[in-house]
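step=predict obj=MBL fold metallo-hydrolase n=362
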Amino acid sequence: MSRTRKVVWSLLGAAVLLGAAAWVFQKPISVRVLEQVARKNVGRNIIPDLPDGLHLALCGTGSPFPDPTRAGPCSAIIAGDRLFIVDTGEGSARTLGYMGIPAAKIEAILLTHFHSDHIDGMGPFLLQRWGVGTAQTPTPVYGPTGVDRVVSGFRAAYALDFGYRVAHHTEKIMPPGGSGGKGMPFALPAVGQGDSVVVLDDKGLKITAFRVDHLPIEPAVGYRFDYKGRSVVISGDTKVAASLVAAAKDTDILVHEALQPNLVKILETQFADHQMNNMAQVMHDILNYHTTPEEAAQQATKAGARQLVLNHIVPPLPLRYAYPAFLGDAAKYYDKPITVGEDGMFFSLPAGSTAINTQRLY
């Protein structure tokens, strides 16, 4: 037998032995791996290690479309050591956990409007803040007029579940008073008398809600967060709106929704070709109350925003290779960084600095 054949047979034999060993020791190996994963992730909390400042986590950059890489709309804002959630799209609580940001630490949730894709993931946030954080009071949920109806609906839907958990784990672990949410409605000024209202102004953090244009969905708002000289603006769902430009003036980061009509029209054609006429009509209708990437870029330029981050991505983009087609001519209208938002992205704005530091947390 030649030396080469001996080497080949030796390698094959070693591979067989390794495979056999892996099979025989499958259970103990799996247990060891799970122990290591648990040790790394249980109790993970990045917030205490962050520099003082304003931080943005993208916990959901998707839309109502099925998208394996994007949860429903959700942004987390960390101001100092305080955690706020803007919108609670489906799957976003899991994304937040993957990023090492515990939902148990949420101070409040803020809703931009009441379309299903912006609220359908609220339940897990409320449950984690209650059960993991042992909250003594319901989670404050801020929003425009109508938010109390939404929160009451979730409380009714989860009422049996809340009772089961108290009965099983005892009131010490699941204090009944901490279950669910508490609607915190605010009213915008009448049309023509202003477009914004301060929702919270406390300990150096100012949160301002401002009117956007998502008609016929009304009310609909965006939010501006200001903390120690740094700022983040979240548009919510809107078409081009002067009120957004005013609210986003000189902001560090503008997080803006984006829909690319050229790509949506492809879906409209396919739905029509498959005689799915209802969905074809929906694809046509959604074009008139969202913002294109090019329009978002123009808005960012008018506002003087330092960075534009696109979210609520429509339609789903299966590969980053599709990003240029999605962005279209946006770069012609905005000469600063444009980021197509992805779940897991994290932006850090240290106080006393002009830096915008970006990383992936999962």
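step=describe
The chain has a mean pLDDT of 94.
step=end
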